[in-house]
Specification:
Keywords: 4Fe-4S, Iron, Iron-sulfur, Metal-binding, Oxidoreductase, S-adenosyl-L-methionine
EC number: 1.97.1.-
CATH class: Alpha Beta
Distance between the termini: 25 Å
Protein name: Anaerobic ribonucleoside-triphosphate reductase-activating protein
Family: Belongs to the organic radical-activating enzymes family.
Pfam family, one: Fer4_12
Length: 154
């Protein structure tokens, strides 16, 4: 899979101290995106599932955030990472330009399966006209922070 970067000890990408995996590839092309280089999957570096999990596990004090790009763009691989991360006892937040409804109704099995491993979804595309710097964990007012433990995903 293609990964842009992995950073440790983030305090802005979810509750608590987090390791953030920024995946390459994004179909949304949001105007004002903070990471437009991530749109092109070719800009990422090739990493295996185990390499990503090993990097996450190297910092035992953090939970995990999947960001991008668009994590659901490479859902089959990210799903495998998420499954292994959960065995480490880590909480997973995922940022997506898709809405929860789009993901739940997706024809892609792995997009729906990835949701089942996520604890929190920050959903919706970044909309520059709804940008709001006062929001916590979101960039624009249309985005939602959703506790997935309250939702049944099949």
């Amino acid at each position: 899979m293609k990964v842009m970067n992995i950073i440790h000890d983030s305090v802005v990408d979810g509750v608590g101290l987090r390791t953030v995996v920024f995946f390459a590839g994004c179909p949304h092309f949001c105007k004002g995106c903070h990471n437009p280089k991530s749109w092109n999957i070719k800009n990422g570096i090739e990493m295996t599932v185990d390499e990503v999990v090993d990097e996450i596990a190297s910092n035992p004090l953090t939970d995990v955030t999947f960001s991008g790009g668009e994590p659901f763009f490479q859902a089959a691989e990210v799903c495998k990472i998420a499954e292994k991360v959960k065995t480490l006892g880590r909480n997973i937040w995922t940022y997506s330009g898709y809405t929860l409804e789009q993901l739940i109704n997706s024809n892609d099995y792995y997009q729906r399966k990835l949701l089942t491993y996520c604890d929190v979804l920050v959903d919706g595309p970044f909309l520059i006209e709804e940008r709001d710097l006062t929001l916590t964990y979101c960039g624009s007012r249309n985005q939602r922070v959703i506790d997935l433990s309250t939702i049944t995903i099949t």
